[in-house]
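User: Second chain of the day. Same drill as before.
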Amino acid sequence: MFSYVCTACGKKTPADTLAPVCGCGGLFELDFKSPKWDDAKIDQKCWSIFRYRDFMAVDGDAWQSVSLGEGMTPLVELEPGLYVKVDYAMPTLSFKDRGAATLVAHMKAIGVKSCVQDSSGNAGNAVAAYCARAGIQCEIYVPEGTSPKKITMIEAHGAKVHVIPGSRDHCADVCRARVREEGIYYANHVVNPFFYEGMKAYIYEVYEELGRIPEHVVLPVGNGTLFIGAVKALEHLLESGAIDHFPKIVALQSEYCDPLLKARELGLDAPVSIDVKPTIAEGIAIGKPLRGSELLEMMKKHDITVVAAPEDKILAARAKIARAGLYIEHTTAANFAAWDHYCELYGPSTDVLITLCGAGIKSDH
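Assistant: Same format as last time:
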């Protein structure tokens, strides 16, 4: 059985707890250190992220009845030196399936019967799908303005959807209030550390596919689930000697919602309080990232550059990638708009990895 460690007080708690956070209110981290990377430990007979389970915190064999074949997505060199990971080629058409698979596998292992979660759409859809697979009742809270097609998908999996007026941050507050009042399990992709275990596989897949990691890795950051998982995996590969240096990570935020970018510019250790403006990059419209201090600590440790995705460049970037044969959602297009902006600021660069977070059909609104 794994244990959690509180990031605030350091207290250890068995990971089969149904509580979302420590009694002191601090967020949990897993008390787990991956064994040294070894290609021989990859389960070549398993065609999902669980081929890397020896390097992830996975509870027994519960994953076998939860997995939907997530991960192992194509890696395409779209043009010389520009690699894209087609992460919308997963069961729920987004990169959140990796984390949902490991989180719901943990939930099944500890006997969770029902849960709630708040999301801008993709994570909620992923958790709803994997809960359906695992036989766990699920309710998803989404903010108004969420893509109708994402809501349709969530409901199709049998989950009840609550559309909450106001911002994404307010939506989270409403859902967390219910967790506190009713004690229902909070299957949240930001709070629960098991979600990040699945997100690590993004980097493991790239390393296995290329035999290396590109020099630049572009990562969208709203709540930072992919960012945290990717950084943890890169640290693991570096400590294991599988790679000899840390790549240059380019983290991006919407120019209309940039609490981490402003904090980096000011040299602060906590996100800046901002007024969130409406953005079509709904997946990263997080004004109050719950793990903001943790994200900024990682950014400082690895000298990570944060850039804004210009709002008026997102749709043009989406159209350009579609002309290359890949139809992506708006938040994914923000990755390309931000990368172009990075090159404008710091000079042209190549050998870059960009994730195609979600399918375009999910954000046609």
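DSSP finds eleven helices and 13 strands in the chain.

User: Great, on to the next one.
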